[in-house]
Design goal:
Elements (H helix, E strand, L loop, with lengths): L11 E9 L7 E9 L6 E9 L2 H5 L9 E7 L7 H4 L6 E7 L6 E9 L4 E9 L8 E7 L9
Antiparallel strand pairs: 1-2, 2-3, 3-4, 5-6, 6-7, 7-8
Protein name: CreA protein
InterPro entries: Uncharacterised_CreA
Length: 150
Amino acid sequence: MAIFVATVAQAEQIGEVSTAFKLLGANHKIVIDTFDDPDIAGATCYVSRAKTGGVKGSLGLAEDTTDASIACRQTGPITLPEDVVNGERDGERVFRKSTSILFKKLQVVRFYDKKRNVLVYLTYSDKLIDGSPKNSISAIEVRPWQQTGK
């Protein structure tokens, strides 16, 4: 039986919008991050998440809400590793972002639907003691990469 060392993707923030004005400290925001699946080239996900502002948020002491959404797309040729196709890596964490100073994380895990040849990404938030049932999924149909020429 093989042992896998999970590689967690690094996110790049591509945008944000303010949702509530705060007189002191940063405004409350929705932030959009993007990351490429670290094990599957050509699979890219976009995660929107709430970011708490105010003085505590500016100091990194606030706890962000569990609200998040995900959209994933094929952005290049995809070749699936054999262990992914065999379901040996279902539920593997591909992204994690701390959303509080202690123990709360936004996570993205990957599954493979072999029957339909689809990668499924699930985002959710968890805490050491108690997580949240709020979640979002996105799916990428794995098909030959099509390029158009001029």
